[in-house]
Structures are given as C-alpha cells and as structure tokens.
Write a structure and sequence with these properties.
Structural class: alpha+beta
Number of strands: 12
CATH architecture: Clam
CATH class: Mainly Beta
Largest sheet: 12 strands, mixed
Strand content: over 45%
Number of domains: 1
CATH topology: outer membrane lipoprotein receptor (LolB), chain A
Distance between the termini: 71 Å
Helix content: 10-25%
Length: 219
C-alpha cells in the first residue's frame, strides 16, 4: 500500500470511529433525556427490587429483597433489617434487631453516596455518560449506559451502570461500582408510578416503636 493511501485509509477509519463515538454519545444523551421526560410524569413511585452486594476484597456476597416509595425528595426504604425514612431534610435509619434509630442530615448523606430518592433519575445529577451498547437481561433487550461522577468531591463509587428498557422507558437494573471493591446490583422487580402512598410514610414516628433508642448524629 502506498503511503498516501495508508494515510487516507487511516483518516477515513479515524473519521468513522469518531462519528460512531459521537453517535453513541448523542444516543445516550437522547435516551436519558427521554427517561427524564418520562420520569416527570411518575408522580409518587412504589417499587420492589432485589439487590446483590459483592465484596471482592473479602469474597462476600449478599442478596436482599427491598421496597421503596418515593415522592419528590422524600423516600421510604424497607430493607427488612433496616427501615430508612427521609422527608428530604432528615434521614432516620431504624435498625429492627436492636431497636435503634440513627438520625442524619439528608443533604450530607446524599453528598457521601447515592440518594435513594433519585434512584430513577440519578442521571440528572452531575454525571458524564457513556453508551455501552445493547444486550439482554432475562431475555429482554436493554440498553447499557455508564454514568461517571464528574463533581469536585469524590464519591464512594466510580461508575453506575444503567440497564434501560428503551421500548418502555424504564430502568430495569442499576449497578453501583464501589471504589473499595464492593459492587451492588439493583434489579427492579415491580414498578408503579403515581402510586397511592400512606400518610406519614416519610418520617420516623418514635411513638410507634416502644423503647427505641434514638441516636442523633446531626451536627
């Protein structure tokens, strides 16, 4: 091959590669924008999920069922052993086995990790995204998009993998890749938008838990 032909071929290949990457980026932005538009009509949300935690450093695995109710910045998370309440300002974490309740500032907790109230809109925060392609989960086609935190403060995770049912504009799986070698996979089992939620669901009522030990960690 002549040198000029080689350079011409290389330039064409580079152009095709760049165009393909640009198309994927545009597709990722477009899909996430459509998801955000869809999410605006969700109203309150009720969902159940299965989480799987894998700690590679200790070769530990744990599978857990959970449910979550979300209304704006408020959420109620039931993990069985723990029940987490948040009214958007305060977070109460109730540990069932020992009858202890830990009180935290919601904003501070969100800065340190992933905010459960944004589970279905996490991509709207300060993230860069990358289109990773299409695959199947449980026989159903999904689109894989990676999110990378781009804020100044380092998060305890380096990547969130989203698996999206593009036809129905629904998140079906999210994988949080921890910096310390711990990964958590969330598989959405059921999802109900515009759900009718109980009154008082987002605040911990100590009177309903006789003898509870409330530990306030707020500054």
């Amino acid at each position: 091959m002549k040198l000029t032909s080689f350079f011409q071929t290389s330039m064409v290949a580079t152009f095709i590669w760049a165009f393909t990457c640009l198309s994927y980026a545009q597709n990722a932005d477009d899909l996430l924008s459509r998801l955000s538009a869809e999410a605006k009509g969700y109203g309150s949300i009720q969902a159940t999920y299965t989480s799987k935690l894998i700690d590679r450093s200790s070769d530990f695995e744990s599978v857990q069922k959970g449910s979550i109710q979300i209304d704006g910045e408020q959420f109620h998370l039931d993990l069985g052993d723990y029940r987490i309440y948040s009214d958007g300002v305060t977070i109460w974490t109730y540990e069932v086995a020992v009858n202890d309740c830990y009180v935290e500032d919601a904003e501070m907790m969100a800065e340190e990790g992933m905010d459960p109230s944004k589970l279905f809109t996490i991509w709207e925060d300060d993230f860069k995204n990358e289109w990773k392609g299409n695959l199947k989960i449980n026989g159903k086609p999904v689109t894989h998009i990676n999110l990378y935190p781009s804020g100044e403060k380092e998060k305890p995770f380096h990547t969130i993998q989203l698996y999206i049912d593009e036809a129905n504009l629904r998140l079906v799986r999210a994988v949080v890749k921890g910096r310390e070698g711990t990964d958590v996979t969330y598989d959405v089992d059921t999802f109900q938008p515009n759900a009718a939620l109980e009154t008082g669901l987002f605040k911990f009522d100590a009177s309903q838990f006789p003898g509870v030990n409330v530990i306030d960690n707020r500054i």
